[in-house]
Sequence to fold (141 residues):
Amino acid sequence: MDLAARKAANLSVLRRQDPDIVDLLDQSSHAVVYSFDLSKAGWAKKGIEGTVFLIRRNTPPYYGIYILNRVSIDNYRLILTEDLVIEQQDEYIIYQTPNGTFSLSAPDDRDMDIDGPLYIQRIYVVYGFTNLEIARGYAAK
Fold:
């Protein structure tokens, strides 16, 4: 399957989860979600791993991350909002929500760059924009 056909198929699958998705900005073939366990002072897998997509929506909030879970039938969604506390540490993105502290990793070496996976770098570019028109311009590239 060529790249355009694969993108169209993935977009179709994701739109069943969220019909407001209009574009896939980036993806990585494998990512894992961890949660920080305070009682053990360490990270624990959440039972979510699979292909991760950086998506753009046509309604606010405009950007998010979806993981098509290979471990269970429950897929994962993280909408990028202004109140999300997010930071990058190597190939991990660590973020804090009202439900706790989580980490998202992408161990696929093909997606790695000097500063971590390319999709994490793109999250920072998209997430860092405050002007929506500039962000849409970036997403169109």
